[in-house]
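Task: sequence design from structure.
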């Protein structure tokens, strides 16, 4: 067994120092293999209760969609930045020009994608 200190603000967070969270903790004995996770401590019953599964709200899904869109567009910018410089300097090969065109088309498709639609398929270029 080992002693941990559970934060009384949420009964989920814990540590090994009773001074954590300004001392707003309670001591709890747990098994040596305790790792926490999706559980909340019930101090009245002195048991850990498994948290219900997380079900994302529509707002969560929309926020995730926007985060993915930003990630995909950033990826396209990262991949094409050198190609754009080569194009501006008229140093780009025909093969790289085609690759740049494919990525720009992909970026435009990502920008046009609205919540609820499938993401465009990334080219192998």
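Answer:
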């Amino acid at each position: 067994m080992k002693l941990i200190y559970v934060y009384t603000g949420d009964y989920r967070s814990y540590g090994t120092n009773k001074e954590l969270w300004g001392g707003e903790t309670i001591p709890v004995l747990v098994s040596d293999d305790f790792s926490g996770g999706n559980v909340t401590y019930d101090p009245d019953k002195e048991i850990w209760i498994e948290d219900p599964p997380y079900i994302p709200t529509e707002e969560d899904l929309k926020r995730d969609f926007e985060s993915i869109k930003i990630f995909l567009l950033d990826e396209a910018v990262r991949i094409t930045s050198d190609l754009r410089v080569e194009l501006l300097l008229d140093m780009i090969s025909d093969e790289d020009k085609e690759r740049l065109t494919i990525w720009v088309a992909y970026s435009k498709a990502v920008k046009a994608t609205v919540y609820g639609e499938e993401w465009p398929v990334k080219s192998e270029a």
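Residues 2-50 form one domain.
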